[in-house]
Design brief:
The protein has 9 helices and 13 strands. The protein has 275 residues and is α+β, with helices and mostly antiparallel strands. The chain has a 5-stranded antiparallel beta sheet with strand order 1-2-7-3-6, sandwiched between helices. The chain has a 4-stranded antiparallel beta sheet with strand order 8-9-10-11. Strands 4-5 form a two-stranded antiparallel ribbon.
């Protein structure tokens, strides 16, 4: 395979098969292609993950660990032990030279001292009826070639955590068919950050959007260690239906992180994304 195919720039990934780069990277690539501001980055496709597996004879080892019984018949302790042994093999495995060189070159292109986010982007990771949020590893503020290479290894290995395997068991998915792509992007440090949903995900056909924000980077929001400012905003009128202040350093905050104009701009952006 052409060495350039081990790493795909995000700006060139919109036409790549989503099964190679995962939904997360594919959606960001399409947003970039249509003119939205997306932090620069690249994707390490499933092909690189599969090359890593084959170079270290991992498919046979995984088959032996998980093929002895169906997942439904494995006791939790057995599944935990198998998951740990698989991840330990990932930790010991050697990167194929061509894959490692491609990743290191991509890091240099982004800036060797630039803080990066190294995130999972597994094909089928999230959809309308299932979400793997929090099950696969992501790493923020990763600096330097060595750190990025090891973070990629850990993201790949997280496909085989006991939690991820149990969730696949719950969804009746065959873990032996699981694959992982990795998304790498520049970190952007802002005064505040957060997440927004065009429709309240808890209510079918909701007329309200949901916006959550925290000071600084949103890693603590995503992992649930801080309570964000939370807005419920009517999609049409742009009026705030409900505001719940977050807690910072254990204390409730009365001053919202976002003003009304900020919320209106966010909803306009959500409209454009959905169009």
């Amino acid at each position: 395979m052409d060495s350039d195919a081990w790493v795909i720039p995000l700006a060139e990934a919109a036409t790549v098969d989503q099964q190679q780069i995962g939904g997360k990277a594919a959606h960001l690539a399409r947003l970039h292609q249509t003119g939205f501001h997306v932090a620069p980055g690249c994707c390490i496709p499933v092909a690189a993950y599969e090359r890593f597996l084959q170079a270290n004879q991992l498919p046979l080892m995984i088959q032996m660990e998980l093929g002895r019984k169906s997942l439904e018949d494995l006791r939790w302790e057995e599944l935990w032990d198998s998951a740990l042994r698989i991840r330990n093999r990932f930790a010991e495995a050697q990167f194929p030279v061509e894959v490692e060189h491609a990743i290191r070159r991509a890091v240099r292109d982004l800036g060797s001292r630039t803080p990066l986010a190294v995130r999972s982007s597994a094909p089928g990771e999230d959809s309308a009826n299932r979400s793997f949020a929090g099950l696969h590893e992501s790493f923020l503020h990763v600096v330097g070639e060595d750190a990025v290479v090891e973070s990629v290894r850990l993201v790949w290995a997280s496909l085989w955590s006991d939690a991820a395997l149990l969730y696949r068991q719950e969804l009746a998915l065959n873990p032996l068919h699981s694959r992982m792509a990795v998304l790498i992007q520049e970190m952007r440090i802002e005064d505040c950050s957060g997440v927004a949903f065009g429709r309240d995900p808890r209510i079918e056909d909701s007329e309200n959007a949901v916006v959550e924000a925290v000071p600084g980077p949103c890693c603590e929001l995503v992992d649930g260690t801080v309570d964000p400012d939370h807005w419920l905003v009517h999609r049409t009128s742009r009026q705030v239906v409900r505001f719940t202040p977050g807690r910072r350093d254990g204390d409730p905050q009365n001053e919202p992180l976002l003003a009304q104009l900020d919320l209106e701009s966010l909803l306009t952006l959500l409209d454009r994304v959905e169009a």
